[in-house]
């Protein structure tokens, strides 16, 4: 404003060309004043908005959520909203702790300047580093980026290196030669990894000084100095006897091991006289895309939990188990079965998972789980219940007395009645079933499979018609009841309405043919009305319950079906 007043005074005492110059300067001064006033007004207005009253700590946590949900640098757009947001974002070092360095990108000066800026803003916060390159050898100008990053090795907490060639891996390892006292996770992977890499030695990085290293993802075995602190290991399944022997020795060097994940890409060839790999203690073994060739060389103690992921498309028909499962106590003497279909992305059914959890009757034996990705886009070839039956087919479920079914709905693309037939085939696998719990599923179809039917033994045998016997009399049709020992049914959170006629028809039919139910529980007082008109052969303990047993899932590190590791894909 002062400059504007002075320009007005000069304008009144001048004339000619000088007056034009002063007028132009006056216009610029007025524009600057207008910009300053507008900025002041907007800042004053923002101060009264609710979101600008949040403490800086809360605003920073919101920025963390935005950054983690986007998984790229687009979160930085929040700094363009206002000056306050920019100041908060710059003042929080942890927001700048994730660095993805692509050594193949051009524009060396801009990338190097951006790297230095991020390192400066991260101050002394622990760093999560990803370095990737497809080059066989790094030229000098690309190595400068590594040198800039190598000065902060002491702050590395998470390191992921993606490369193809041994030469570039050696160059990156040489740059990261200083000790890494904060390093907890190390991932060494390759683009387009297929599991066949040949003999590559573990790179000597971080001067073998990383006392906090807990997680290792790699395609090669590790030296003894690396394994002493490891708790979680992810690598490819060994493909020959020598690699099995090396794996057994490496595992023995990891006294703190909690989880071992092995991925097999494709089907491994049979190995004669495999080296047994013993696992004992509180260890979680996870086998991804297993085949008999890479499963039966394990010898598990009863305390080792087991999870099996059917990931590859080579196993479309059924789960693949070894012929001899005596070394897998989790698969023997099963007493309880829990099955569910759930989505890793609730908004999309393109990543649906079939999960099976089986509990052993043997005391102190943890459950083992089977996961199978299921793409509903291919429902014409196999529905969810069809895949479930294929997963269960190799298991002996004759001793299972309790079954929980969660989140199974009929397939809209299946032919009419196919789901009903598949559910009958499912109940054929569990003849000793006594308690059935249905949670968040289309109960009418599942209960319909329990109605006695005119048929020979299941599965998939034609129903006899009124054929003529040897003496000219019609043959008697055989009435078969699925799960004749079933005594209790629990219905919980049924998503679709279930009519009294459905339950009454199933209950009365089972009573008529000698398989009466004793207990039927429904969650919620309103839903109990469907039980009021049922005619019971024996007076049941009719009840309404609020809580029912759901699918058991222990919170174990990494125990999720779709944590697909890109580096091993």
TrEMBL record:
It holds the Pfam family F-box-like. Gene3D superfamilies: 1.20.1280.50. InterPro entries: F-box-like_dom_sf, F-box_dom. It comes from the Eukaryota. Residues 52-97 form the F-box domain. This is F-box domain-containing protein.
């Amino acid at each position: 404003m002062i400059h504007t007043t002075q320009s007005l005074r000069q304008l009144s005492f001048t004339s000619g060309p000088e007056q034009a110059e002063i007028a132009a300067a006056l216009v610029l001064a007025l524009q600057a004043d207008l910009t300053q006033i507008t900025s002041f007004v907007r800042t004053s207005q923002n101060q009264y908005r609710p979101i600008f009253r949040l403490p800086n700590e809360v605003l920073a946590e919101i920025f963390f959520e935005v950054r983690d949900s986007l998984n790229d640098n687009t979160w930085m757009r929040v700094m363009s909203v206002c000056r306050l947001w920019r100041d908060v974002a710059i003042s929080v070092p942890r927001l700048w702790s994730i660095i993805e360095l692509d050594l193949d990108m051009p524009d060396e000066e801009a990338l190097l300047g951006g790297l230095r800026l991020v390192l400066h803003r991260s101050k002394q916060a622990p760093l999560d580093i990803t370095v990737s390159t497809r080059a066989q050898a790094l030229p000098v100008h690309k190595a400068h980026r590594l040198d800039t990053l190598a000065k902060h090795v002491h702050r590395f907490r998470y390191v992921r290196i993606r490369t193809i060639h041994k030469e570039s891996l050696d160059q990156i390892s040489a740059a990261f030669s200083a000790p890494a006292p904060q390093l907890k996770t190390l991932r060494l992977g390759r683009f387009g990894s297929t599991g066949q890499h040949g003999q590559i030695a573990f790179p000597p990085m971080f001067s073998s000084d990383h006392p906090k290293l807990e997680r290792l993802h790699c395609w090669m075995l590790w030296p003894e100095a690396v394994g002493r602190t490891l708790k979680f290991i992810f690598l490819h399944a060994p493909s020959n006897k020598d690699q099995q022997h090396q794996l057994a020795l490496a595992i023995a060097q990891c006294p703190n091991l909690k989880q071992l994940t092995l991925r097999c890409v494709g089907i491994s060839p049979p190995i004669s006289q495999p080296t047994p790999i013993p696992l004992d203690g509180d260890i979680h073994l996870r086998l991804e895309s297993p085949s008999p060739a890479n499963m039966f060389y394990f010898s598990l103690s009863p305390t080792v939990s087991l999870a099996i992921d059917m990931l590859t498309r080579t196993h479309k028909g059924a789960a693949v188990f070894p012929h001899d499962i005596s070394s897998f106590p989790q698969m023997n003497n099963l007493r309880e079965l829990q099955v569910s279909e759930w989505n890793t992305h609730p908004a999309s059914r393109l990543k649906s998972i079939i999960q099976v959890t089986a509990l052993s009757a043997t005391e102190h034996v943890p459950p083992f789980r089977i996961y199978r990705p299921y793409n509903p886009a291919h429902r014409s070839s196999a529905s969810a219940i069809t895949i479930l039956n294929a997963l269960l087919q190799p298991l002996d479920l004759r001793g299972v007395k309790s079954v929980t079914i969660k989140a199974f709905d009929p397939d809209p693309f299946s032919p009419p009645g196919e789901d009903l037939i598949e559910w009958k085939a499912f109940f054929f696998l569990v003849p000793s079933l006594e308690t059935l719990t249905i949670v968040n599923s289309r109960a009418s179809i599942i209960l319909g499979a329990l109605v006695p039917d005119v048929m020979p033994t299941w599965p998939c045998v034609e129903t006899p018609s009124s054929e003529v016997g040897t003496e000219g009399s019609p043959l008697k049709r055989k009435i078969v009841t699925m799960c004749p020992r079933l005594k209790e049914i629990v219905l919980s959170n049924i998503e679709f309405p279930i009519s009294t006629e459905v339950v009454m028809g199933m209950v009365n039919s089972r009573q008529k043919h000698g398989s009466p139910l004793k207990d039927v529980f429904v969650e919620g007082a309103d839903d109990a009305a469907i039980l009021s008109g049922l005619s019971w052969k024996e007076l049941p303990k009719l009840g309404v319950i609020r809580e029912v047993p759901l699918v058991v899932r222990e919170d174990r590190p990494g125990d999720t079906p779709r944590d697909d590791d890109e580096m091993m894909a």
